[in-house]
């Protein structure tokens, strides 16, 4: 029986604490690192993952010129099977290398995002 696609939804709160942000960054800026960690931690097949980035509505936060609107994006990444996730455990688990490269974001309507979540299909 073939393995169905699974989706991973990353939700950006929009008001990230400055101290926290200087060490880790936003979901958008760290997408390659985060996807590498999630795929390894949960032993996911990289070819079967659908990545979705979500931004909650926040009147004080502007994302892609959308003030106060909830947004969803399909995140497409190139998977390089020759690279392994490398983490430096001596430096606060800093990600040194990730197999997920060249992210591209494609806006989704809330209805399309829900459809992907419910069906596991693009």
Kindly describe this structure:
This protein has 122 residues and is of the alpha+beta class. It has one domain (6-119). The protein is 23% helix and 35% strand. The chain is built from 3 helices and 8 strands. The protein has helices at residues 18-24, 31-41, 110-119, and strands at residues 6-12, 49-55, 62-63, 66-67, 71-79, 86-88, 94-97, 100-108. The strands form 3 sheets. It has a 4-stranded mixed sheet with strand order 1-2-5-8. A hairpin with a 2-residue loop joins strand 3 and strand 4 (66-67). The longest helix has 11 residues, at 31-41. It starts with 5 loop residues before the first strand and ends with a helix.
Task: Tell me the Rg in angstroms.
Answer: 15 Å
Q: SSE order in H/E notation?
A: EHHEEEEEEEH
Tell me the total number of β-strands. Answer: 8
Mean pLDDT: 78
Strand order of the largest sheet: 1-2-5-8
Quickly count the domains: 1
* Uncertain regions spanning at least 5 consecutive residues: 16-23
User: In percent, how helical is the residue content?
Assistant: 10-25%
Distance N terminus to C terminus? 20 Å
> Which structural class fits the helix and strand makeup?
alpha+beta
**What sort of overall outline do the alpha carbons produce when their principal axes are compared?**
globular
Q: How many helices does DSSP assign?
A: 3
Sketch the major β-sheet. 4 strands, mixed
- Percentage of residues in DSSP E strands: 35-45%
